[in-house]
Design a protein that fits this description.
CATH architecture: 2-Layer Sandwich
Helix content: 25-40%
Number of strands: 4
Radius of gyration: 13 Å
Shape: globular
Strand content: 35-45%
Structural class: alpha+beta
CATH class: Alpha Beta
């Protein structure tokens, strides 16, 4: 499994970011290889983000070449460059 963690600032108020999360969620549910996505709002900041859990690095790479991925900055009116971290899952506590 591969995990990707994204953190960004938006020009929109938090309520609007949440609305976009809801609107786009069905498209993520249909994304091949995406096991789970956790939508985030960082405490004490105006930052948002997500944790993506992918079946494989290949599934993540396929997403990175998708139209859905390309529209993220515009959809959320991202300010600056998002912080993106990718890691391989080497052990899980629960299945």
């Amino acid at each position: 499994m591969t995990v990707q963690i994204v953190r960004f600032r938006s020009e929109m108020p938090a309520e609007e970011v949440m609305e976009i999360y809801e609107q786009r969620a069905p498209r993520y549910r249909a994304q091949d290889g995406l096991r789970q996505k956790y939508y985030l709002r960082y405490s004490g900041t105006e930052e948002h983000g997500a944790v993506y859990v992918w079946d494989s690095e290949e599934a993540l790479e396929a997403f990175r070449s998708s139209e859905l991925y390309r529209t993220i900055p515009e959809a959320y009116r991202v300010q600056g460059t998002p912080e993106i971290t990718t890691a391989e899952v080497v052990m899980t506590l629960r299945a």
